[in-house]
Amino acid sequence: MGKTARHLRPLAALLGAALALSTTACGGATDASPAAEAVDISGSISGQTINYWSMWKDGEPQQKVIATAIADFEKETGAKVSVQWQGRSNTEKLVPALNTNNVPDLVDGTLAKLAPVIGETGQASPLTSVYAYELDGKTISSVIPEKFTSNGVFKGEDGQPWMVPYSISSDGIWFDAARHPELKAKPPATWDEFMAVLDKLKAGGTAPIAADGDIAGYNSTWFVTSLLRLKGAGSFKALAEDKSGAGWDDPAVLEAAKKVESLVKGGYLNSGYNASKFPAQQQLWANGDAALILNGSWTPTETGSYAAPGFEYSSFQFPAIGDKPASARVDFIGFAVPAKSKNQAPAQRLAAYLLGSKYQDALGTDAKVLPVRQDAPVDPAVASVKAAIDAAPATHLQNDGVTFPGYTEKVFFPRDDELFLGKTTAAEFVAKMKEAQIQYWKDNG
Amino acid sequence: MSIGLKEPRAGKAAAQNTASRKPAGRKAPAQDRRPGSSIDVQRKKLLVPFVGPAFVLYTVLFIVPALGAVWISLHKWAGSGPMKFVGLDNYGRIFRDRLFLSSFGNTLLLLFVVGAAIFILAFAMTLVLRDMAGKKMVRNVIFFPHLINALVFGVLAGFIFNPGGMVNSLLAPFGVTDPPKWLAQDNIFPLIMVTLVCTTTGYFTTILMAGVDRIPPYYYEDCALAGASAFQRLRYVILPLTWDVFGTCAVLWTISSVKIFEIVWVFGGSSGAGVPPTQSWTAAVYTYVNAFSGQSTPAYGAATASAVLSLALISVLVVLLRRAMRRDAVEF
User: Fold this and answer.
1) I want to staple B111 with a disulfide (CB 3.0 to 4.6 A). Which of A167, A336, A418, B257 is the partner?
2) Domain spanning A49-168+332-372, CATH architecture
């Protein structure tokens, strides 16, 4: 025994050392979040360095604008910015980093991706100082349209904003204005007018609507927007939050589902939409094989390379159903600063800097996306979307901002897919959703 | 549930296995208990420098993270920020989740149905290829699909099976005007199964052939002299002499099939732009969606719970398989 013990002792020591090493490496997972206080960012930041993990990859149009801004920023302030152009996976890389003390000083991403990772977990610094910061004589909060901030989407549990948007995205029902000038002249404003347009297109031998049915997020836009038109922004989130599931008994919910059903049953969707692989259907649409597509404000850039010659991008908003003021979908892309960052002032200054009109204009005209500032010009292809956002009295997020863990992927998307792909009726969809949602909240409540 | 019932036995088998294997390195010095034997002393000296680094790396990189995963699976956690201890709730929840059960069912389909198809085909090909002219070239050709990234098959699936894709264009001249909806949500998983059979069979055929090539030719001559049929040759010569190779292949497939993920992800869900339809989820996809779908708050507790269950499944299956396949190796 003595001998084996002697063998084991060094191994046990090694095991102990290994355990100690790895637990210290992972330590801090349960640390309370550091004190979150707004900092003064107006002083000199010359000589300071920040690490920025970007959601853009080298060569993307948005990357070029931000790189220009960074170069100007460094020259103007004397601070240094060390950038990693990581691409969209930067938020996934951020999660493990937040459990260490080695965090980036600045990250960007969509609100939908940053909120679960850094906003709702209390890991972001309050950016109150950024909103109060003055650029060219105007505060940042005054250049961001009030309807974007008034519903509190950027606010954390402490009531302070943790994100500063620099760009937005939206959606619309897109068409080729060169081929359908009548739609540009008089876009359908109500559901009945919309159905009349569809009938006319169908009678003319054109497939009315193209849809990449394998993307659940696109499919769900039809039901969610119908519901928001009927009951207003925030109503889908309220419906999903309802632990009793009784909200699904509301006749308005069934009506929204019936709108989707009518598109499917009416044969308005391009044949094959329910058995194809993205981007096959949007390619068909860009080739002129279908007239309309409900998709994001990125559609002109995404389909531009294969669109038919002479294609003129235009869009109209999802038609009104009922008399609620129609909200426009607005999703945000912007900056957040991890609370553990030790270089708060320069990081927050850079976040503010990108709202300068020079870079906002460049985002609109060079990168052809929608800048967050209302006074920034945009490319003609997205002018119709911008006009709709400017005119809308309120805004809503994609899926109405529902991010309950697993609800979207496991409860809503599968059943909504069945409805949109024609496998269930509106009534069955509503009944299935009610049952699944009650079970979901029983398990996750 | 049958797995649960068999668990104690499997556990014992595992214990036996480790008892019979692990000490192999350590038993040796214990056997020659001559104190002061210079070999014994040398061995002792070499144990730490030789085993140590691997042991430390293995512990830090595999064992500790695995234990960490078990720890996380007992919590409700979004990946960062506060962790809430919930005990075994995550396990109870995923067992009640029909989606987990169907994902798990798909994993078992891959493991058993695809596995059976692969091994039957691989064996058949091995037998055919043994006597074939140009078998080296054929072997390379059938191995080739295994080298290709699954992403390629995901993208290709679109070209081939889209409504305006290759298959339908080829069918059109034959008067097929209403072809099946190849890429409908319900058809994606069967397509994935077929793709996996096509890409993996070559890999196992190559390994099995290496085993078959080892068999000395005089056994076949003996068979010919004794007038054995092709089946008898398989039954009495080839199978017994390649049994250990076959056993290893079975374990390799078990381990890799439970982890199949990327091909499901790219086949549906449009090459990563969304989440694949739930009909095609495997346990690995379920795990991933819970943690990283990007559509909702990550649930690391539920994700690790399903990963831990997958690990438990692999361990139990591998132990059972090793036990079922155990034969005395035929020396030749």
Assistant:
1) B257
2) 3-Layer(aba) Sandwich (3.40)
Q: H helices within A60-212, ranges in order? A: 61-77, 90-98, 111-114, 128-132, 140-143, 146-149, 181-185, 191-203
Q: What is the pLDDT of residues B113-138, one digit of tens each?
A: 999 999 999 988 888 888 788 888 88
Contact A277 B183 (CB under 8 A): yes
Residues 6+ apart with CB under 8 A from A341: A50, A103, A104, A105, A106, A125, A347
* Euclidean distance between CA atoms A238 and A232, whole angstroms: 11
Distance from CA of B29 to the nearest CA of A (A): 9
pLDDT of residue B127: 84
Indicate if B121 and B251 belong to the same structural domain: yes
Q: Are residues B42 and B111 in the same domain?
A: no
Alpha helices in A266-327 (DSSP H): 280-286, 299-303
Residues of B in contact with A277 (CB under 8 A): 157-158, 161-162, 183, 270-271
Greatest CA separation found in chain A? 94
Q: Which residues of A touch B44 (CB under 8 A)?
A: 6-7
B66, B143: one domain = no
pLDDT digits (tens, 9 = 90+) for B227-260: 988 888 888 888 888 888 988 999 999 989 988 9
Tell me, yes or no, if B164 comes closer than 8 A to chain A by beta carbon.
yes
**How are the residues of chain A apportioned to helix, strand and coil, as percentages rounded to the nearest 5?**
50, 15, 35
Tokens of B201: 């069979």
B-chain residues within 8 Å CB-CB of A413?
275, 278, 295
CATH of domain A171-329+400-444: 3.40.190.10
* Residue positions counted in chain B: 332
Classify residue B10: in a domain, yes or no: no
More confident residue, A306 or B331: A306
Q: Rg (Cα) of chain B, in Å, rounded?
A: 25
